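User
Take a look at the entry that follows and flag anything odd:
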Amino acid sequence: MTRRSGTERPYDIVLFGATGFVGTLTAEYLAAHAPENCRWAIAGRDRARLERLRERLTALNPGCAVLPVLQADSADPDSLRTLAESARVVASTVGPYLWYGEGLVAACAEAGTDYADLCGEAEFLDRMYPRYDVRARETGARLVHACGFDAVPSDLGAYLTVQQLPEDVPLRVDAFVRSHALFSGGTLASVMTVMSRGRQSLHAARERRLYEPRQLDRRVRGSLGAPHFSRETGYWALPLPTLDAQVVARSAAALPRYGPDFRYRYFAGVKTLPVALGGSAAAGVGVALAQLPPVRSWLRRRFESGTGPGPERRQASSFTLRLVGTGGGRRVFTEVSGGDPGYDESAKMLAESALSLALDELPDTAGQVTPAVAMGDALLGRLRAAGLRFRIVDARELDATL
């Protein structure tokens, strides 16, 4: 691995897609929290919108009056190459990533530029791995997907939980998430894309497995699990087919601390059985409707990309992720919680990930890596300082007779 020096590059961080809904929230977070010596810029295809965003940011932080504005377009490879070569880290909020994301990943892999995004599309991660992981390892680029609510709470929550369990023994971690929040038009577009591409997703996952190194002396699984009642949390558990379990499993495969045999399962936690049954039925209907192009088109018109819940609604939103880890005769309960998961907190997670990649002393790694592998303790510390709660609720020894 030959990490290219970033000292001669004009920017530490460039935020691509800054004028979108989550992009604007991320830019506002950087305006308020990036250190004065951090050289950052906003980028997108519409210069006029970028300049209006700069005016908005200047009202929050007068220093943003001279914030650089860069033009780049997902459909213009030359502009993406120039963008990647100008920065040490590029953070992208431009989704659906299957349609708009690959060019920037390719440019960052080639330029040796660290990359972070908010992607929750498993198919996109699986397609990018065989195409760009090797080149990124050669140039020293860290390609870190899923740096928002998908899947930082799961990834760092499991990372924290594992640290409380014995070493060199089989470990099991189950996670139960509850949230109260709305979605934006951009999120809807990504969700509908994922739900309508089951066959393509399976093909991409199979292709990725051909390229991934095999675990010869360790076993790692990110399992879907089955619906059940969790006595530890008091919730009915519904398996969530998001990419969280896959991300955690890849962290476990890369980090020996997760033990010789590791399993992670990710569930929605609901309080009553009728709600659990209704949620399962609604998910099935959603998948079926996503196969119909007229339905997808109507929903996209109804929830236009770039729009989302307002400040008051986001302020009333929250999430809690409870994790139960067992192994070596010990059981640990941990919890990750915060405010609005899909927007305010996701913007915070992406911004802090970009700041960590640009400014922190991090493990020497490259290629397509997870947040826990790329940033681990540094990102955990940053997010705690930024107000997200990662805490150890309880730890106890198990009765050997049970």
About this structure: Confidence is low (pLDDT under 50) at residues 184-188, 278-292.
